[in-house]
Write a structure and sequence with these properties.
By secondary structure, this protein is α+β, with helices and mostly antiparallel strands. The chain folds into five domains: 3-161 and 344-377, no CATH class; 174-324, no CATH class; 404-499; 507-587; 593-708. Helices cover 51% and strands 8% of the residues. An eight-stranded mixed sheet has the order 5-4-9-10-2-1-3-11. A three-stranded mixed sheet has the order 6-7-8.
């Protein structure tokens, strides 16, 4: 099909949010350098998604109150915000916290231009019902999740779409949803459509290959083979995407021709591994929704690996193509397992969003007395009959999330809880929480391994696999436990496949699995995760470098750079072989520092200042950097820019990266012309949450000895 016709068709079918080429959506996961110009009307072809979001901004401030007025004015504004939110809380109301990346621009409610995560790309928000507003005032966050709740602003909006899917806890126990997925036929139809569309999204050779009879036979043989992994199945199928079948004067891909058969096979693989254990109408529909979402996730993953981009954009596109433009999750962990209550709108046009307003985040740093006073203000306001506010004081939290405090769970409490966990529909989540969150987690797992009726010996293979997966996701599982469990279970292959991704498994299993995937020339997400395992050492990587030159070697070299055991020499060799195209390699902290410095100087010389200061973050975090390297860099920049040096360092967060380098000192600060106050002010204006976000962002900067010793 002609590319223009294809784009026209997809645009008409799916709306303004259609994906552009991956290169234009994201550049190595980073936005283009001049976001501000884009907002001021200067088009930047590399960043289009945020432009596609057409949501009118409503900045809500009382007429007589600004951002920097007296304490009295500040309290007036907070009370205004509380009253406005109280009037708008509800089951379809959501709150999204937003960072201010430029002091002259209030952040808009829009799809991020950076395709950063693997979840569906879109506008995410926490629920804002009555209990969430109470929590926002008393705890500074609307739910238990705390991501981004310290940001400077928040947006409040409603999702009003007939195509939104809402998942919830039915009868406080079972996961449920009301969707069109009441039968297998509906599921197969939608998955087949995603497969057909994916055949168009994948990068292909310039000319289609007309499939011979032998090619067709090989494809059908692959289709009818035995697969235990949906991911590996889709990877195998889409390897045939370049092959076309003739039909009159036109051709179609073999994938599009066999879309229904592929969908049926994927359904079979998933349902065999995750058999349906529910009977109620709403819970059956939830099972089918989870199946559809899981298969779409794997299809999107295959596309992203082929096109060398994040899967989030494809994830959203495929959901939209089957009529799902928003997911509202009320406690089922459907969107993300770490945040059971949130929403995502994948309609990038913003048509299904009704804006309530954009507010200054006044709840981030309240004192205890302020929280109590403001909560009383809320109660007084909503209790006033003249305000006509309907308030539900009896909203129930599902026992799914709240009935067990896993962090304080003792071994004795686990023994009493064990039978209840086994009966739970969400057994995998519960058992995983017991062994990973509890301070007695290792004792609990050892107890389960030694138990005569251990979960690892259960007659239901799904229970066994769920228990194995829980151990595979356990952060600090003792090495000896892996061997014990492998010897305990019947399906040893499943256990080994899950465990070899864990850093603590005995190396012999990792080495054997690596040899296997290299022999089979597997190119899927499982292999990328295996390559990151620290049990893969530099000798293994050297063996990869010595493989014959082919497409598989190119693929694996494009991913092995993230391994922490790779040597500087190996990194530079891989970067050279990529002809400078794989810039991600430079992020490895073992990359030769001299080469990084040369690239920095070259970018400055060629006036690619934005890229140079992006590279700076990799230089200062590099394991091999010495004080002489940093001094050389500062000397070079100050000589080049003179009095304008600080102007360049202030761009983005380059100044913060520089100041946090262990070799940065007062002499360098004087040379650049920067003070401690300027550094902290810049950090405060950015509300930085970068590589140090686990140390509380700006709070960490204020207490950091590296910064504190400066004048």
């Amino acid at each position: 099909m002609n590319n223009k016709l294809l784009r026209k068709y997809i645009k008409e079918a799916l709306g303004r949010e259609i994906m552009y080429s991956p290169e234009r959506l994201s550049v190595d996961g980073q936005a283009s350098s001049n976001l501000k110009n884009m907002y001021l009307g200067i088009k930047n072809p590399e960043i289009l998604q945020r432009e596609l979001t057409n949501v009118k901004q409503v900045l809500k401030l009382p007429k007589d109150v600004g951002f920097n007025n007296s304490d009295t004015d500040r309290v007036k504004y907070i009370e205004f915000v509380i009253k406005d939110l109280a009037k708008n809380v509800g089951p379809n109301t959501f709150i999204r916290f937003e960072d201010q990346w430029d002091s002259s621009i209030i952040p808009p409610l829009a799809v991020s231009p950076i395709v950063k995560w693997e979840t569906p790309h879109g506008i995410y928000g926490y629920p804002l019902e009555e209990k969430n507003l109470e929590s926002l005032i008393l705890k500074g966050k609307p739910t238990r999740a705390a991501y981004a709740t310290q940001f400077d602003f928040f947006h409040v909006y409603k999702i009003n779409s007939p195509k939104a899917v809402t998942t919830f806890i039915d009868d406080f126990e079972s996961k449920a949803v009301n969707t069109k997925y009441s039968s297998k036929e509906n599921v197969i139809k939608d998955i087949a459509e995603c497969i057909r569309l994916t055949a168009s999204l994948l990068k292909t050779k310039s000319k289609p290959i007309i499939a011979s009879e032998s090619d067709i036979n090989n494809f059908e043989k692959a289709l009818n083979s035995t697969f235990t992994s949906v991911e590996y199945f889709f990877t195998t199928m889409f390897m045939y995407n370049d092959f076309h079948l003739e039909s009159g004067n036109t051709t179609q891909t073999i994938i599009a021709k066999y879309k229904t058969e592929i969908a049926e096979k994927a359904f079979e693989i998933y349902s065999k591994k995750n058999p349906k254990k529910v009977s109620k109408k709403l819970t059956v529909q939830f099972y089918y929704l989870k199946l559809v979402k899981s298969l779409i996730e794997q299809i999107a993953n295959t596309v992203s690996l082929t096109n060398k981009s994040k899967r989030g954009q494809y994830y959203s596109l495929l959901l939209k193509s089957i009529g799902i433009d928003a997911i509202i999750d009320k406690g089922t962990k459907t969107i993300h397992h770490n945040e059971p209550r949130q929403s995502v709108s994948t309609d990038f046009s913003g048509k299904n969003i009704e804006v309530i307003g954009t507010y200054k985040n006044v709840f981030a740093n309240l004192t205890s007395s302020e929280k109590e006073s403001l909560y009383n203000f809320l109660v007084e306001f909503i209790s006033n009959p003249s305000k006509n506010i309907k308030w539900n004081w009896n909203q129930k939290q599902s026992r799914y999330a709240d009935e067990v405090n896993y962090e304080t769970l003792s071994l004795d409490e686990y023994k009493a809880l064990r039978k209840i966990i086994l009966k739970k529909e969400q057994f995998s989540d519960a058992f995983s929480a017991c062994i990973d969150y509890s301070y007695d987690g290792v004792k609990i797992l050892n107890y389960e391994i030694e138990h005569p009726n251990s979960f690892f010996k259960h007659k239901n293979s799904v229970i066994v696999e769920d228990a194995i997966n829980a151990v595979a996701n356990m952060k600090n599982c003792p090495t000896e436990f892996f061997e014990k469990i492998i010897n305990l279970v019947n399906n040893k292959e499943y256990a080994i496949n899950a465990f070899v991704l864990h850093k603590n498994i005995p190396r012999k299993y990792v080495k054997a699995k690596l040899s296997e995937v290299i022999k089979d020339k597997r190119t899927d997400h499982y292999v990328t995760r295996l390559l990151k395992n620290p049990q893969v050492n530099s000798d293994d990587i050297q063996g990869i470098l010595e493989l014959p030159n082919n497409a598989f070697k190119d693929w694996i070299l494009n991913h092995v750079w993230e391994n922490k055991n790779i040597t500087s020499k190996q990194l530079e060799l891989i970067y050279t072989q990529s002809k400078g195209e794989n810039l991600s390699i430079l992020r490895n902290q073992n990359y030769p520092i001299e080469s990084l410095m040369e690239k920095f100087f070259y970018l400055i010389d060629t006036e690619e200042v934005g890229e140079a200061f992006q590279l700076l973050r990799y230089i200062v975090k590099n394991n091999n950097i010495e004080k002489s390297h940093l001094q050389e860099l500062v000397d070079f920049v100050t000589k080049r820019y003179g009095n304008n040096t600080i102007t360049n360092f202030v761009k983005g967060n380059a100044l913060i990266h520089l100041a946090l380098c262990k070799h940065f000192d007062q002499n360098m600060a004087d040379q650049i012309g920067v003070s401690k106050k300027q550094i902290l002010d810049r950090a405060e204006s950015l509300t930085l949450f970068d590589a140090w976000d686990d140390k509380n962002g700006v709070d960490f900067l204020k207490k950091n000895p590296q910064i504190s010793k400066l004048k």
